[in-house]
Amino acid sequence: MTDTRKTALIVGASRTLGLGLAAEYLRRGWDVIGTVRGSRRTGLHDLAEASGGRLTIESLEMTEPEQISALRDRLARRTLDLLFVNAAITRGDIPIGEVPTDMFTEVMITNALSPMRVAESFRPLVAPTGTIGIMSSDQGSISLNDDGGQDLYRASKSALNQLMRSYAARYAEDKRTLLLMDPGWVRTELGGPDADLSVEESIPGVAETIERHRGEPGLHFLDYQGQAVPW
């Protein structure tokens, strides 16, 4: 019998949103490859032990281009139905004029440049009608920014969105689905304890939105409820 299970590669799956997404796709019957940074044990390792072999773990520091290339080579024989990149850092709510140059560089490399390097590198492994998704945020929306704050984080997500627009234009004839996902304001280390949503409330909606748009070519910027987010 042919194995018809689909495969998802989730980059940044060691905790919170990424870990929740890995668990959700396992629940949906997929095989999952999840990446972690370094060699320390994480919640993803616990999930893998309970997965019956359907979750495998790879090490990736995605800000290191050579590690991206090495992982792509290790997975070269795999076909991915979903590539999803979940990665973001913030360094506090600092007015942009006070942000040190090294902090600006770190956040931009992590939140904007590195996810796009992953998308470019792994594109050949994604099925011709598969999905490439990246976790964005409504804070990356220029039109929704009425109250300011979180200058650097907002700028990094806006940069990510712009880079993904360019990526979509470059591959305009591609039949793959391209998604920028806003998970909502979630209680994570980044979102803080006062956020509206738990991971358990956000992630099933994220996965459902991804699946609802599977097979629809082009770029979509959507929230966890499937609503379009203004650019």
What is the overall pLDDT average?
96
What would you call the shape? globular
Radius of gyration, CA atoms, in whole angstroms: 17 Å
- Which sequence of strands runs across the widest sheet? 3-2-1-4-5-6-7
Counted beta strands: 7
Helix content: 25-40%
Distance between the termini: 45 Å
The largest β sheet comes out as: 7 strands, parallel
SS-based structural class?
Answer: alpha/beta
What percentage of the residues does DSSP assign to strands (E)? 15-25%
Helix and strand run: EHEHEHEHEHEHE
- Number of helical regions: 6
Q: Could you list the spans in which at least 5 consecutive residues all have pLDDT below 50?
A: none
Report on the structure:
By secondary structure, the chain is an alpha/beta fold. Helices cover 37% and strands 19% of the residues. The chain has helices spanning 16-27, 43-49, 65-74, 101-122, 151-170, 199-212; strands at residues 7-11, 31-36, 55-59, 80-85, 126-135, 177-182, 218-223. The protein has a seven-stranded parallel beta sheet, with helices on both faces. Helix 1 links the parallel strand 1 (7-11) and strand 2 (31-36). Helix 1 (16-27) crosses helix 6 (199-212), helix 3 runs parallel beside helix 4 and helix 4 (101-122) runs parallel beside helix 5.
